[in-house]
Specification:
This protein is of the alpha/beta class and 513 residues long. The chain is built from 17 helices and 17 strands. The strands form 4 sheets. Strands 2-3-4-5-6-7-8-9 form an 8-stranded parallel beta barrel, surrounded by 8 helices. Strands 11, 12, 13 and 14 form a 4-stranded antiparallel β-sheet that branches. Strands 15-16-17 form a 3-stranded antiparallel β-sheet. Strand 7, helix 7 and strand 8 (202-207) form a beta-alpha-beta unit. The chain is globular. The site of 3-methyl-2-oxobutanoic acid (KIV) has 9 residues, from strand 6 and strand 7.
Length: 513
């Protein structure tokens, strides 16, 4: 007997919208564009680029992604009211393919406490919102927010009415991450059974990860007929995050025997995508994270290593190179040329234009002067640093430090401000990093509270590059920065300056409003 055909599931990426709602993960326009471009290369079906009415920055990001990124459908979020929907369309109209995503909460808790509306009023609003969106755009998605906690009879009514009003996708969010796999499966099954016009729309799911079940719940939805999954790179998002794109994609691909589904995702780009999102948001990927964590393919136990050497499939269900880890950690050095670097970059899944390659090659040569062996993780770190593009007003020029174990370190620091050099007096701090941060605060005029600081090595050896991640608080908002250098004090300064740059950008944007 023939096996059933593979069903293609649409991947709706919301890293730039729901993902950006992770505390401290805000991104600037250049970073959002870079991520959107990367999502297009990954071949996601839909990019939710933002919530245009939420802020002028969100509007601009959706508008620019719509204008510049080709391939996927570009989507903007709107509540069920005219102003939101009109603004969403204004941001989306230049897209090659666009979608308006309207949402309204439907659960009893939200109806009673948040919206103070009855079922009929909710139904009317939802239908009116979908109709208005459909006047602009043929592709309309409707989300009954908190659907997983909505009474199933009412949910069926809402879904039927919004499809009749023109919704081409109905998304079932588990907004608070409350569902379990059997629960989510039952909801989708009921919609399939009970909504008469359900075949006229794609059923989507949007699962949050509060119980660690977002991927399992999404898979259960797929098993029951969902045709679209909403997810984010590295699973970033509100609270415990959203369904992780890399996990759901690889679960369906690796267990095609069970799910009989696939996606059009280029899986070899998953690791570079994960690294880029981590670098831009400052949200580090835990080492043991499935698919993209540093240890995801590391075999420590002797018995496993022995099995792996005899036959990789004894302990490996996926090949590291299939998700974008390089097969070998080839070492480059100061005699390696541009072609070798370009080859390594492309094996690691990065697509660089000539200008980027030139810049990365220059940084590579600098690093090769300081460090004998350059590993894949070093190359990836240089590339990420480069492609994160910051036209920063303040950059580090140099510093000199006096340090001994009996007294506070003293630093004299020089920053470049545009073309000009500005140098501090000697400044002292509790340690070398504190001294450098205080000196930067003095020169830039921003006094911040450091809320997080971490350093880890990018590769191996005493001369390994250090990666510093820093988070600071300024006027109630959190900003992050990341810096890489073989000198961890210098890496700290670079990271701190990047966080200052984000504050600066926000201050400038607020002035022009
Ligand atoms: O979690 C949620 O309910 C959402 C909706 C806007 C889809 O993010
Ligand atoms: Zn959400």
């Amino acid at each position: 007997m023939d096996s059933p055909a593979t069903r293609m599931i649409r991947i709706f990426d919301t890293t730039l919208r729901d993902g950006e709602q992770s505390p401290g993960a805000s991104m600037n326009l250049a970073e959002k564009l870079k991520i959107a471009q990367m999502l297009a290369e990954l071949q996601v079906d839909v990019i939710e680029a933002g919530f245009p009415i939420a802020s002028p920055g969100d509007f601009e990001a959706v508008r620019e992604v719509a204008a510049q990124v080709k391939g996927p459908v570009i989507c903007g979020l709107a509540r069920c009211n005219d102003a939101d929907i009109d603004r969403a369309w204004e941001a989306l109209e230049r897209a090659e393919k666009s979608r308006i995503h309207v949402f309204l909460a439907t659960s009893a808790i939200h109806r009673e406490f948040k919206l103070k509306m009855g079922q009929d009023e909710i139904l009317e609003r939802a239908v009116a919102g979908v109709r208005r969106a459909a006047e602009y755009c043929a592709d309309v998605e409707f989300s009954p927010e908190d659907a997983a906690r909505t009474e199933i009879d009412f949910l069926c009514r809402v879904v039927e009415a919004t499809i009749r009003a023109g919704a081409t996708t109905v998304n079932i969010p588990d907004t608070v991450g409350y569902a379990t796999p059997s629960h989510m499966g039952r909801v989708i099954h009921s919609l399939k059974e009970r909504v008469p016009n359900i075949d006229q729309a794609v059923i989507s799911v949007h699962c949050h990860n509060d119980l660690g079940l977002a991927v399992a719940n999404s898979l259960a939805a797929v098993e029951n007929g969902a045709g679209q999954i909403e997810c984010t790179i590295n699973g970033i998002g509100e609270r415990a995050g959203n369904c992780s794109l890399e996990e759901i994609v690889m679960a369906m691909r690796t267990r095609a025997d069970v799910y009989r589904t696939d996606t059009q995702i280029i899986s070899q780009r998953l690791v570079p995508a994960s690294r880029l999102v981590s670098a831009v948001t400052g949200l580090q990927v835990q080492r043991n994270k499935a698919i993209v964590g540093r240890n995801a393919f590391a075999h420590e136990a002797g018995i496993h290593q022995d099995g792996m050497l005899k036959e990789a499939s004894t302990y490996e269900i996926m090949r590291p190179q299939d998700v974008g880890f390089s097969h070998t950690d080839l070492v480059l050095g100061k005699h390696s040329g541009r072609a070798a670097l370009a080859d390594r970059a492309s094996t690691l899944g990065y697509v660089l234009n000539d200008e980027q390659l030139n810049q990365v090659f220059a940084d590579f040569k600098d690093l090769a002067d300081k460090k004998k062996e350059i590993y894949d993780s070093d190359v990836a770190a240089i590339i990420e640093q480069q492609i994160r593009f910051h036209a920063q007003r303040w950059t580090l020029d140099s510093y000199c430090m006096e340090i001994d174990s009996d007294s506070a370190p003293q630093v004299k620091l020089t920053l470049k401000h545009g073309d000009q050099l500005q140098t501090t007096e000697m400044a002292s701090g509790d340690g070398p990093v504190d001294a450098v941060f205080l000196a930067i605060e003095k020169l830039t005029g921003y006094a911040v509270r450091c809320t997080d600081f971490s350093v880890h090595s990018v590769s191996v050896g005493h001369d390994a590059q250090g990666e510093v991640n820093v988070e600071v608080e300024y006027q109630g908002n959190r900003f992050h920065g990341r810096g890489i250098s073989t000198d961890s004090v210098e890496a700290s300064a670079i990271a701190f300056l990047e966080a200052i740059h984000r504050i600066d950008t926000l201050q400038e944007a607020m002035k022009t409003r």
